[in-house]
Amino acid sequence: MSFSREVKKEISLIQNEVCCTKAELYALIRFRSTLSFSNRNFKITFITTSNSTARRIVYLIKRLYDIKVELLQKERKHLDKKPLYYIVITEKGRMVLEDLSLLNPDSTYNQEINPELFQKECCRGSLLRGAFLARGSINDPTKNKYHLEIVANNRQEAEFLIRILTDMHIEAKVVSRQKGEVVYLKKAENIADFLKFIGAGTSLFAFEDLRIKKDLNNYVNRIMNCDVANEQKAIASAAKQLNNIAYLEKHYGLMNLTSRLLDAVILRTTFPDDSLSQLSDNSLSTINRHLSKSGLSHCFKDIERLVEELKKNKPTSSDK
């Protein structure tokens, strides 16, 4: 089961107060349903592939209104396609819409969002829970990118969700896509706060646990990659220093070096694969005095400059 379905399964079992039940059903009707009018009544139809969402819609309606609800399941031909669930309200549809302030006095759909339904923080959480059940999804936290989104029908709905999320100090953005206005969260801490706000406590713990493990693995990999890169850099530097020493031995004579440079040469030739830190650690036991890492670095830079000077002043065949 996907992480999104796990979250929806969990939040579909939450027990609400009546005010929160209305807020959640309001969001589900607004984001997930289609309305049709006949015989002076409204038919409200929900279509979803989520069994938990379908059951949640039936539960919310039964909790608030003593009306008949039809729940139908339609199998699809392709084996990889999930079945479709149809939830249909044919009885007292007008009453439901009017009670939730979704219908104007002239029987037109109310495009304005009624803020009175969301005065309490718990009701705002229920609204977001309904919106997520209706048209929300979240990436598996083990994936490369964190992403949670809710698809709104229009910019007005999207901006309303943004305002609620902003009030809860959750940073969200909106982008227009073919499927609608997508309100999305990218930061892991914002997604964690969202899960907490809609009451998905178990999913929140699972999300944080997986996130910590992933971040730890990424950190370890970065450290290992850094160590490998540093080791490769140290090997390349040591090889260059040995080449410079070999050139000096042939064209200048090591005994002509200062005692400081000669000590560095002795350390490098004794420990050809060691880093500067390791050479520094071995200096006292090898040359009877301590040479710091920075001191050794300066020595090898001086040796490199001396080699460059010798190569620059080396007579050409035409000078002989």
Kindly list the characteristics that best describe this protein.
Endonuclease I-creI; 320 residues; four-stranded antiparallel sheet; 2 domains; alpha+beta; rod-shaped
How is this structure best described in words?
This protein is α+β, with helices and mostly antiparallel strands and 320 residues long. It folds into 2 domains: 3-199, Homing endonucleases (Endonuclease I-creI, Roll), CATH 3.10.28; 216-314, no CATH class. The chain has helices at residues 3-11, 18-32, 51-64, 93-99, 121-135, 155-167, 188-197, 201-251, 259-270, 276-287, 293-313; strands at residues 33-38, 41-48, 70-74, 84-89, 136-138, 148-152, 173-177, 180-185. The strands form 2 sheets. It has a 4-stranded antiparallel sheet. A 4-stranded antiparallel sheet has the order 5-6-8-7. The mean pLDDT is 87.
Question: How would you briefly describe this protein structure?
Answer:
56% of the residues lie in helices and 14% in strands. It is α+β, with helices and mostly antiparallel strands and 320 residues long.
Nearest-integer average pLDDT = 87
Number of helices: 11
Report the CATH C-level class of the largest domain.
Alpha Beta
Please state the overall shape, judged from the principal axes of the Cα atoms.
rod-shaped
- Give the biggest beta sheet: 4 strands, antiparallel
CATH architecture tag of the largest domain: Roll
Number of strands: 8
Q: What is the CATH topology descriptor of the largest domain?
A: Endonuclease I-creI
Tell me roughly what share of residues is in helical segments: 55-70%
Provide the succession of SSEs: HHEEHEEHHEEHEEHHHHH
> Radius of gyration over alpha carbons?
35 Å
Which regions contain 5 or more consecutive residues with pLDDT less than 50? none
